[in-house]
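Box 3.1 A note on notation
Throughout this textbook, protein chains are presented in two layers. The first layer is the amino acid sequence; the second is a token string describing backbone geometry. Keep the layers aligned when reading.
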Amino acid sequence: MRIDNVLPLLTARGIGLRLDGRWLFRNLDFSLLPGEFLTLTGPSGVGKSSLLSCLAGTRKPTEGKIVRNFPKDKGIAIVFQDLLLTDGASVLTNTLCGRLNRYGFARTLWGFPEQDRIDAFNTLQELGIGKLAHKWAAETSRGEQQRVAIARALVQEPALFLADEPVASLDPARADAALSIFQREARKHGRPVFAALHDPRQVEKFADRELILSSNSPEDWTLQTVSRHVS
């Protein structure tokens, strides 16, 4: 889905990353537009996670520039591969951490406002894990934890989402449900999604465009519109 005459929220201009003496990617040029779902694909080890880290600002690219065009208070919501949950906190508290940027540290010592708790619980419900709200994160399965990490990102209500294999531990039905929510966030609220996915079916079903990294050469990458086949 291409939106004309709209400024990109994030633009990569000629970015490249060199790690351990080799280039993972070079001369990457692409933008993330409001309302779109962009997927990142390619073989293991090609640099997908590293690219997402560069866009998130947790890793500095070796070359090129990343331009972010959104208010700082909105920021980027990230679903990491290693999830980064707090095992000794409840599922609901982990989800509420998506709202931490709205309050000072002292404010959260007294708990989150009731509306935040309602929003977090409703998000967990939509992802099918509302019944786990008061369980410790450590007591849940990997797939359940992955949905908690997704819920945490959703309640942040960011400018955009970056997600690194966000549904890798979910069965197809639950994965589609989660990706449908991300797609809705993009379409309805203009919060674009850039997600690394490994399942071609998911790419075809949810993505507007696909950025493909290749192991042949760090400059051998492709950005293409996704064609949907109607059966």
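Residues 10 and 68 are 5 Å apart (CA to CA). The mean pLDDT is 93.
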